[in-house]
């Protein structure tokens, strides 16, 4: 027994097995995730090209959308290479510190995405409830400050998690039943008291996701109150139309986030189902976000059409 304990004392390498119970078919599942990643990378890269170069999009909502696009690209880069290597090439081993680094980047980028959605909700609140002061409130310096606060908050709070894992030395296993390094999946490997890790994980989750969701809900309650007080039906519809893309992105992000968060801690969901849904939660929103905003915005649609038409003419 002592030799087993010694063999997992301060392990330098961990093993990611992919999707438990679906190892025989995860090679083919990898193609669907690869396609989702390609759509996400292409769509968000196009947004990052269009928004800085199109003067009419130099507005707070689209500045935040550009930051969201960069965050989504970061999520895909943090998850996809190792996950696809597991699915397609059986490359399951990962250095312990590399696993913690992946854990940090995935959860920090999730936290940043949540914070940017909150900033976008605040932008919609000011634009609809106090339109005359919109440009004076959301100045370029304020926008930069908001983005920095969102990034620093996510990095500092999430940075606590790998530090707390590093204090654990004894592990009963080095096999992670997951396709990427997720906080609780790594913590559950420890053969020591992990109550501090679990508590801190919950606090970080609620401090970021819970706080942001409450304030986004509050902002939209105030927005709807302001919209319903508008006398003209066309004005009400126009105000609602400016919010629909953000509402859709907000709902898809938080519904999937909380399902993944709670099912891993308190639920009795099959491991394969949980891992598939948690991977979908991380990869599908980055693919959908540019599509949702591209469909809703005429300028983005026009510029995307121009990009593809130019490519077609250059090939001919």
Written overview of the protein:
The chain has 316 residues and is mostly helical. It has a single domain, classed as Up-down Bundle (Rhopdopsin 7-helix transmembrane proteins), CATH 1.20.1070. Helices cover 77% and strands 3% of the residues. It has twelve helices and three strands. It has a three-stranded mixed sheet with strand order 2-1-3. The longest helix is centred in the middle third of the chain and has 34 residues. The protein is globular and about 70 Å long. The N terminus is likely disordered.
Q: What keyword list fits this structure?
A:
12 helices, mainly alpha, disordered N terminus, 3-stranded mixed β-sheet, Rhopdopsin 7-helix transmembrane proteins, 77% helix, 316 residues, single chain, transmembrane, cell membrane
Question: What is the percent of helical residues?
Answer: over 70%
Count of DSSP H/I helices: 12
CATH topology descriptor? Rhopdopsin 7-helix transmembrane proteins
CATH architecture: Up-down Bundle
User: What is the CATH superfamily classification?
Assistant: Rhodopsin 7-helix transmembrane proteins
Keywords: Cell membrane, G-protein coupled receptor, Membrane, Olfaction, Receptor, Sensory transduction, Transducer, Transmembrane, Transmembrane helix
InterPro entries: GPCR_Rhodpsn (IPR000276), GPCR_Rhodpsn_7TM (IPR017452), Olfact_rcpt (IPR000725), OR51/52/56-like (IPR050402)
Membrane topology: Multi-pass membrane protein
Subcellular location: Cell membrane; Membrane
